[in-house]
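Q: Predict the bound structure with guanosine-5'-triphosphate.
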Amino acid sequence: MAKKKRILVKFSGEALAGENGFGIEPSVLSYIAREIESLLKADVEVGIVIGGGNIIRGVSASEGGIIRRTSGDYMGMLATVINAVAMQEALEHIGLDVRVQSAIEIKEICESYIYRRAIRHLEKGRVVIFAAGTGNPFFTTDTTATLRAVEIGADYVIKATKVDGVFDKDPNKFQDAKKLDVISYDSALAENIKVMDDTAIALAKDNRLPIVVCNMFKKGNLLEIVVNGGGICSIVK
Ligand code: GTP
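A: Predicted complex:
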């Protein structure tokens, strides 16, 4: 039997907030759920990591000097659990099988992260949402996504963003910004193109895990990228 495609998609917490800029917008949850459903229907195994920036960001929380960075980061990890539970509800609402696994034990709310169990869930066609970051402060959810993608043997990690890919300069500021279709890990690191933080890129590089950057709000784009090898995106490899 042909090996199934397995991917890990990282959504930012901010994306869940929609126009509100804060909290969780149900219509965004539903939209993402449908996009994930299309992947499952195409027989793709899907892991998900969601950030927590729509609720709290560790770095920002610690900027006032009252909350220490470590505590701020733990607060951020808890925010990702809230988002994971919301996403689980949205996916289950349309009939998908979902398991949330947390890097920090919160057993009343969800399973703990157990690598071998995560693999079994994926093999059974369940979406696995990896919550609470890596369980450690000073690591981003981009690093979590890369780490989990490597652990579960994903074909690549997809960073689902609000832009079409990686540009040579900020597309929101410069009209002549050009999208780069393929970028090497080294130039992503050296040229300070903030595709992901350096830790995440270095981990991907060490493990030859491609990073795909794409626009999550283009309907059908995820499916096009994963199943047909097309779509609008940039690839760091
Ligand atoms: P199989 O082993 O393939 O049957 O997978 P399963 O996930 O259905 O089995 P299990 O009996 O482990 O889990 C049943 C339900 O309980 C699932 O929704 C799990 O996510 C949930 N569950 C399992 N372990 C925990 C836990 O430690 N805490 C919480 N809150 N839920 C758990």
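A: The chain has one domain: 4-234.
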